């Protein structure tokens, strides 16, 4: 392995270093330059281009975009498909019940929102940032934090050319240290640097554990007569039933393309549950099959989603930097929306940092950012819905619709949650039950028309990893998958991974745990759901991973 103490790296100094080219990081970069064009701002993105690793539903609440760039329509933002038809169903195996819109709290309505490709929105935001003078570097994975005591001083980015054993290869590049007066962490869900910072500085102390879902998405080109631009459909119920919480989304986008997604809450107990197979089974529901038959799938991807909400938000600022967007967990679960809060968090962080720099400060805590998030629009959005997820986890779907709906209605009208603040309790890893207490689930084989196996789908994520590099999926103890997870939990990594990265294969008559890291779509589910918490997701070399074209 490489001895980090012996590596000499060049360093560059900036006012602000931003890790992550999603809506949070890009909004922060733009707002910083709007406030002070002289600020030196750099943004690092691990994907091969901005948008390559962006996966979201997505129905966008434009409130964050309105605040950041009020004339976004005139500037040609790729935000064109306004929601015209909003439907919600609770499904059974062969039918469903449509829940009327009128009992829904106003915050659940999608009037004025837009069906978008967030990858394309982020590509457009990057153009706006570069026009303002932000240095945007895609293909630059930030692999390490540069610490100065307990202050985050910067990050190491651009290390490439390591051999599989971690030693420098013939094309080794040590990367650079990028130092900032403040470092903004905007990696998205379960980012490797955010996880280290939260752990080392105890930022989650006094807060509930973060909760997650696994979101899987396919883009379909459907027959023109089935396409209804601006129609959105959400479902709950079948096929998950009592096995897991979750649901689906179906968004009619543009050019006969429909965005079909499925979310499984990762606090499920049955280790035999196979989220990707549940998604594929869902598409055979008569309502969905009728839409998709005769069409073709053109893209696939998967991503973890933060679901802890208000009570799981950690301390957002730390000496030398802040956590933005989904690095902190700002998704509104019942709305299935987080992009607007991510953008607002970037704006708030930029304004707090610009004010601090103007006052001659650097490297301290931006407590004004914490205060702005916890008292502003993000707080209003998250506090009103804070009990929906824990009610669902404890009591099930129908009580969450009734009790959670009542709680949201009262909070929407008064700003007060009559149910107080429910706790989440266990982490998603701890929620995993023992295999002996459950029966394996018999899933139908994919038909190759509506449903597909994982490896076929992964080909439609356009994922690529250079094979001659260290595996970025680290095992704390290589013996645990076979010695512990296999006998106790039937090694659920074989099933929860939506890309077929993990297998148990037979070698010389004995089981062996195999990691096919080339398949990894960077969803982070393994880092979250492994019951032994033995898998650590780290960044591969820059530019590797999925290359989502239109997600």
From TrEMBL:
It is an enzyme of class 1 (oxidoreductase). It catalyses: a ubiquinone + reduced [electron-transfer flavoprotein] = a ubiquinol + oxidized [electron-transfer flavoprotein] + H(+). Its EC number is 1.5.5.1. Residues 448-548 form the ETF-QO/FixX C-terminal domain. Keywords: Electron transport, FAD, Flavoprotein, Iron, Iron-sulfur, Metal-binding, Oxidoreductase, Transport, Ubiquinone. Binds 1 [4Fe-4S] cluster. It comes from the Bacteria. It holds the Pfam family Fer4_ETF_QO. Residues 212-305 form the ETF-QO/FixC ubiquinone-binding domain. Accepts electrons from ETF and reduces ubiquinone. This is Electron transfer flavoprotein-ubiquinone oxidoreductase. It comes from Paracoccus stylophorae.
């Amino acid at each position: 392995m490489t001895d980090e103490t012996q590596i000499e790296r060049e360093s560059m100094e900036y006012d602000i270093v931003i890790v992550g080219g999603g809506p949070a990081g890009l909004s922060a970069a733009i707002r910083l330059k709007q406030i002070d064009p002289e600020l030196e701002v750099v943004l690092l993105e691990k994907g091969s281009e901005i948008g390559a690793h962006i996966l979201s539903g997505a129905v966008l609440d434009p409130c964050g975009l309105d605040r950041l760039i009020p004339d976004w329509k005139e500037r040609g933002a790729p935000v064109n498909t306004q929601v015209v038809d909003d439907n919600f169903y609770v499904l059974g195996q062969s039918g469903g019940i449509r829940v009327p819109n009128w009992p829904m709290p106003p915050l659940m309505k999608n009037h004025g929102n837009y069906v978008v490709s967030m990858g394309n929105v982020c590509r457009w935001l990057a153009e706006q940032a570069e026009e303002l003078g932000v240095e945007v570097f895609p293909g630059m994975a930030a692999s390490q934090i540069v610490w100065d005591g307990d202050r985050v001083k910067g990050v190491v980015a651009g290390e490439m050319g390591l051999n599989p054993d971690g030693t420098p290869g013939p094309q080794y590049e040590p990367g650079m240290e990028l130092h900032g007066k403040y470092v903004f962490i905007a990696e998205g869900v379960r980012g490797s640097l955010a996880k280290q910072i939260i752990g080392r500085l105890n930022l989650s102390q006094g807060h509930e554990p973060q909760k997650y879902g696994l979101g899987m998405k396919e883009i379909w080109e459907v027959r023109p007569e089935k396409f209804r631009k601006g129609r959105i459909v959400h479902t709950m119920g079948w096929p998950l039933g009592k096995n897991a919480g979750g649901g689906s989304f179906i968004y009619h986008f543009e050019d006969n393309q429909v965005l079909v997604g499925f979310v499984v809450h990762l606090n499920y107990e049955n280790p035999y549950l196979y989220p990707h197979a549940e998604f594929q089974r869902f598409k055979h529901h008569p309502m969905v099959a009728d839409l998709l038959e005769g069409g073709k799938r053109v893209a696939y991807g998967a991503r973890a989603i933060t679901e802890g909400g208000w009570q799981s938000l950690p301390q957002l600022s730390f000496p030398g930097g802040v956590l933005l967007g989904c690095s902190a967990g700002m998704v509104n679960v019942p709305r299935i929306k987080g992009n607007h809060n991510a953008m607002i968090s970037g704006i708030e962080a930029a304004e707090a940092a610009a004010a601090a720099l103007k006052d001659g400060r650097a490297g301290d805590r931006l407590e004004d950012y914490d205060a702005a998030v916890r008292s502003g629009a993000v707080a209003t959005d998250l506090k009103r819905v804070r009990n929906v997820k824990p009610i669902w986890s404890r009591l099930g779907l129908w009580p969450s619709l009734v009790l959670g709906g009542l709680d949201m209605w009262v909070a929407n009208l008064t700003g007060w949650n009559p149910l107080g603040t429910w706790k989440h309790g266990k982490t998603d890893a701890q929620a995993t039950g023992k295999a002996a207490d459950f029966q394996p689930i018999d899933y139908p084989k994919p038909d190759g028309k509506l449903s597909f196996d994982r490896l076929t789908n992964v080909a439609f994520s356009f994922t690529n990893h250079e094979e001659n590099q260290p595996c970025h999926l680290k095992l704390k103890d290589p013996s645990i998958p076979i010695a512990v997870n296999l006998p106790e939990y039937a090694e659920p990594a074989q099933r929860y991974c939506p890309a077929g990265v993990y297998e148990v294969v037979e070698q010389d008559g004995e089981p062996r745990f195999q990691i096919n890291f080339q398949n990894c779509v960077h969803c982070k589910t393994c880092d979250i759901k492994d019951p032994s918490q033995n898998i650590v997701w780290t960044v591969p070399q820059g530019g590797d991973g999925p290359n989502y074209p239109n997600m």
